[in-house]
Every structure is written in C-alpha cells, then in structure tokens.
Amino acid sequence: MNSRKWFLLTLVAVLLTLSGVLIQPFLQYVLGAVLLAYLLYPLQVRFEEYASPMVTAFSLVVLAVVGFVTPLVVVIGVVANSAEQALENFGANEIWIEDIESQVEELTGQEIDILGELVGSGRELGTVVFDISIDAFGTVTFHLIGVALALFLLYYLLKDGDDLLNWFTQLVPLPADIQRDLHTEINGVMWGGLLGHVFVAFIQAVVAGVGLAVAGVPSAVFWTAVMVVLAMVPLVGTIPIWGGAAGYLYLTGKPAFAVGLFVYSVIIVGLTDDYLRPFAVNRYAKLNPVVILLGILGGGYAFGVMGLFFGPVVLGALKATLRVSSENWSRLDGEETG
Q: How far apart (Å, rounded) are the C-alpha atoms in residues 84 and 101?
C-alpha cells in the first residue's frame, strides 16, 4: 500500500473519530431517529407511489410526532404524576407501614423502621434534586434540541432513503448476493428485537399492570411503566414487581388478593413470555437468550435507553457477518465488486 492510500485511510479514520465525538452527545436521539425511520420506511416506499418523497416524508414525520412522540410525553407525565402520588402515599399512610413493620418483626424477629429510612432517603433525595435543579434549564434545552434533531434526521432518512441505500450498496465491496444475505439476517434481528422485546415487553407489562390495578395495588400505572423496561430483560421480566406487589398485599392483610395476583401473574402474564417472546425471537432474530441478555444489558450501559434495543441488534449483526464470512470467504479471494 503506497503513501497516498495510507494518507486517505488515516484521514478517514480521523474524520470518523471526530464525527463520533460530534454525534455522541445526541446519540440517543440519532438512534431513535434511525429506529423510527426503519419502522416507517416501508410506508415511505408505498406512499411515494401517490405523492412526492418530500410530501410523504413530511407526512410520516407528522405521523411519528402524533403516534409516537406525543403519546410518549403523555405517558411520561402520567407516570411522573403516579410516582409523585406514590411518594405522598408513603407519608400519608403510616398505618399500613406500621402493619408491615409488625409483620416483618413477627416473621424475622428483627425490628425495622421503614418510615425513618424513607424520611432519611427523602432528605438525601431532596438535596440531590436541589443541586440538579440548577442545571434544569440547560437540560430541558438540550432535550428540546435533541428531539428537533431526531425529527430533522428522520425526515431526511425517509426522503433520501433510496439514495442512502444505493450509496451504501456501492460503497460495500461485496457481491450483491452476499449483501442481500447480510441484509436479510440483520433485518430479521431488527424485527426480532422489535417484536420479541419491545412489543412483547409492552404487552406483558400491560397485562401485569391490569392485575395490579384490579388487586388494588397503589400507583399501578407507575409500576406498569417500570415493568415495561424490566420485561425487556430476559430471566428478569416483570416478576420483581408483581412478586413484590403480592408480598405487599399479603403483609397489609389482603391474603386473598395476594394469592389471586400471584396466580394471575404466573399463569396469564407468564403466557406472554412463554409463547409470544420465543415465537418472535425464534422466527425473526434466531438468537440465543444469553446473547439477547448480554446485548440488552451491555447495550443499556453503552448506549443508554436505546441500547436496550440496539444491543442485541449489534450482536445479531456480528453473528450474521461471521456466518456469511465463513460461508463465502474462499470466493472473495481475487474478487473485486461493488
């Protein structure tokens, strides 16, 4: 390799690094735009038969705001209000707290002070919130810019999607059939992640949340939102929430509701995880549960909330690449194609 090629490769590496630094602060919003574009792109292709790409892309961005962003904001507001009510209930309902303390003392012989611990934690939390509130304006501004950036990026990903795919196809130095093979497997991983984790987690959490509400568990909406996140994690799921709720009902003198919630959750909620998730994952993603768990946990730490979805996709793409490479390695020797 001559010096000119080394210079170009070095320049590309430097620019890629700098581009990564520029994107990193808004990575969550960029990944969110990519995910929405992936979901809406089939509609973009179909509707372009009746309208221009610009009109179609703009209409789908409006649809994304109405169908995704607005409901998400409303749900966050409801969850925040429910969480606030839950905190108020801790201070207003000292009677059932004393009941729990007496029950625990009878069972374990250990005396505990739940209210005292909560008050101490509340003071610490108040101090933290006061310190953070100083930067509240900057935080809100940052998120508004991030949302605007995501919508702007979504528009151009939809409008110029065909050109982007054609450019990427020409850029990758692989035969067309190998590229199609890779695309098929990665597409399966993407849909497996959507159906097997996001959609199934939402269904499972809602079903469990109905059980919490019927059983009379306080702040059922808040705990349902928590279960949506937990349900994405294999081997964890919604068990910590509905199991804790059943224990809470038993300790507060409602054993019938506790047993009913437990049986409902094991049978009804368990069915969504036992049947819906394997169906979606095995049909589309074909990934081992260990790989999925590692992708979700590692993706969450590496990429934040969006990493819960993109983590398994990255590992699934690696699996697909290794398989395609091993099957076609010999035929790539000496081939030069775009």
A: 23
Asked if residue 252 and residue 149 are part of one domain, the reply reads: no
d(CA 162, CA 129): 47
CA angle 186, 190, 192 (to 5 degrees): 110
Q: Which residue has the tokens 């224990």?
A: 247
Phi-psi region of 219 (alpha: psi -120 to 50; beta: other; left: phi over 0): left
Domain count, the chain: 2
Token digits for 268?
């009804």
| Residue at which a domain ends, from 134, 162, 190 | 162
pLDDT digits (tens, 9 = 90+) for 215-273: 888 878 778 878 887 877 766 778 888 888 888 888 888 889 989 999 998 888 888 77
Instruction: Look at residues 162, 194, 216 and tell me which one is the last residue of a structural domain.
Output: 162
- Range of the structural domain that residue 197 is part of: 175-329
- Say if residue 116 is in the same domain as residue 190: no
Residue 116 domain flag: yes
Opening angle at CA 281, ends 176 and 184, nearest 5: 5
Burial of 104 (0-12, 13-18, 19+ CB in 10 A): middle
For residues 239 and 138, give the distance between their C-alpha atoms in angstroms, rounded to a whole number.
37
Are residues 55 and 153 located together in one domain of the fold? Answer: yes
